[in-house]
Design a protein that fits this description.
This protein is mostly helical. It folds into two domains: about 100 residues, no CATH class; about 60 residues, no CATH class. Helices cover about 80% and strands about 0% of the residues.
C-alpha cells in the first residue's frame, strides 16, 4: 500500500506540474486525500478530471497511463518514476529525452509492453519511421494477447505515411489471414 501511495503522489506531482491552473486545486485536494489514506476519494477526483470535457487530452492520457502503470505493479518505484518522466517529456514535446528515458529504463512484465508502446509512439511523433516499425515488430513477436493485431495496424499506418505500398500490402495480407475479425472492423488511417 505504501508503494502505491508514494507512486500516486509522484503521479500527482507530474500532473500538477503540467495541469491547467483551474485543475491545480483539484490535484492538491487529491494529494491531501492520498496523504490521509482516503484513496477512494482521491480516485473519484482523478476520475472527474479525466471525464471533464475541459481537461487537456494529453493530461488525461498521462493520468490514465500512470494510473495503469501503478496498477500493474510489476516494476519498482524508480521504474514507474522513469516511465512517468518519459510521458511528461512526450507531453512537452521533448521526444528525444523521452526516448532516452524509456531506452534506459529497466521495465518488466506488462509495464515493459506499455513502455515499448510509448517508445513506438515517440518514434512516430519524431518521424523516425523505421525505428517505430522495429518497435512494433518486436511487440508483435512478444505479444500473445488482443494487442497483437494493433501492432500490425501501427505498421500499416507508418507504411501508408511513408508511401511503401509493397509493405502496406504485406501487412494487409497478414492481417486478413491472421485477424479476419480485426479486418472486418476496417482499417482507418
Amino acid at each position: 500500500m505504501f508503494k502505491k501511495i508514494v507512486s500516486v503522489q509522484i503521479l500527482l506531482i507530474f500532473l500538477v506540474s503540467i495541469a491547467h491552473t483551474a485543475q491545480i486545486s483539484d490535484f492538491i485536494r487529491v494529494i491531501g486525500y492520498v496523504e490521509d489514506g482516503e484513496i477512494e476519494m482521491a480516485e473519484n477526483i482523478l476520475n472527474e478530471i479525466v471525464t471533464d470535457e475541459g481537461s487537456d487530452a494529453e493530461l488525461v492520457y498521462i493520468a490514465l497511463e500512470m494510473d495503469e502503470a501503478i496498477g500493474i505493479g510489476s516494476c519498482d518505484f524508480e521504474c514507474i518514476y522513469i516511465y512517468g518522466k518519459a510521458l511528461l517529456g512526450m507531453y512537452r514535446g521533448s521526444y528525444d529525452e523521452a526516448i532516452e528515458l524509456i531506452k534506459e529504463g529497466d521495465f518488466e512484465g506488462r509495464l515493459r509492453f506499455k513502455a515499448m508502446e510509448t517508445l513506438g509512439v515517440l518514434y512516430q511523433k519524431s518521424e523516425r519511421w523505421e525505428e517505430a516499425i522495429e518497435v512494433y515488430e518486436e511487440l508483435y513477436k512478444m505479444s500473445d494477447d488482443e494487442r497483437k493485431p494493433w501492432y500490425l495496424y501501427y505498421q500499416y499506418q507508418i507504411y501508408t505515411i511513408i508511401g511503401d505500398d509493397k509493405r502496406v500490402g504485406e501487412v494487409i495480407k497478414k492481417l486478413e489471414k491472421e485477424y479476419p475479425l480485426f479486418m472486418e472492423a476496417g482499417l482507418k488511417d
